[in-house]
Design a protein that fits this description.
- The protein is of the alpha+beta class and about 80 residues long.
- The chain contains four helices and three strands.
- It has a domain of about 45 residues: YefM-like fold (3-Layer(aba) Sandwich).
- The chain is about 40% helix and about 20% strand.
- A three-stranded mixed sheet has the order 1-2-3.
- A hairpin with a 2-residue loop joins β2 and β3.
């Protein structure tokens, strides 16, 4: 795995980013010998899926059949704001 220092990154940012974009392995950026960042092509990143959590009150509300009046339904969703 390749690594560069922050100083090298500042001096040749464009080149380093292009090299990391075409590389199959990430480029480690170091500061005084300690890894502080990673340059990697987007293909290496895993898409993150958000985990949705429904509030119990919302689950109860969704289980009810829709009403005849839109305003009443909106007020039920809004709750006491």
């Amino acid at each position: 795995m390749a690594s560069i220092t922050i100083k090298q990154l500042h001096q040749t940012t464009g080149e380093c980013v292009r090299r990391a974009g075409t590389s199959r392995s990430p480029v480690i950026v170091t500061d005084r010998g300690k890894a502080v960042a990673v340059l990697a092509p987007p293909s290496m990143l895993k898409p993150r899926r958000r985990k949705r959590t429904l509030l119990p009150e919302y689950k109860v509300l969704m289980a009810k059949p829709p009403g005849d009046d839109l305003i009443d339904d909106l007020n039920a969703v809004r709750g006491e704001r």
